[in-house]
Amino acid sequence: MERGGTVVADAQGRLSIQNTRGLLASKGEVNPDLTLKDPKKFSIVGVFHTHPYDRSEESYNGVSFSGGDLAYLILNRHTIMLVQSGPRCLHSFVRLDRLHMLITLS
Ligand SMILES: [Zn+2]
To answer: Most buried residue, 19, 37, 68, 104, by CB count within 10 Å?
Structure first.
């Protein structure tokens, strides 16, 4: 089962996560829920999800972004996207044209 959530920042730039259940989660997909819990306090920075591959799927680790992941990122114009695949492999995608937002907030 893929898991995921939304990465948000408060006015001071502190990052946290919301909506860890997503709108839909299945074996091969998680659909992020971009509804902010408190839109006056938080803004969306990006999303994260896992790429779990169980024994029936060869137990792969280190699986990076799919084509669908990147299409989602481009369409939603998030600043960051993270994918955890296995215990030691975290992939990140950062839009450099929006990186100033994170630096300014931090
Ligand atoms: Zn993915």
So the answer is: 19
pLDDT tens-digit readout, 67-103 = 999 889 889 889 999 999 998 999 998 888 776 666 6
73 C-alpha vs ligand 1 centroid, how far in Å? 10
CB atoms within 10 A of CB 93: 16
Indicate the domain borders of the chain.
Answer: 4-105
Dist. CA 21 → ligand 1 center (Å): 15
For residues 3 and 26, give the distance between their C-alpha atoms in angstroms, rounded to a whole number. 8
Q: Look at strands 42-50 and 80-84 and give their pairing.
A: parallel
Report which secondary-structure segment, H or E, holds 71. helix 67-76
Compute the distance from residue 65 Cα to the ligand 1 centre, in Å.
Answer: 5
Q: What is the pTM of this model?
A: 0.83
Q: Ligand 1: distance of its center to the CA of 29 in Å?
A: 7
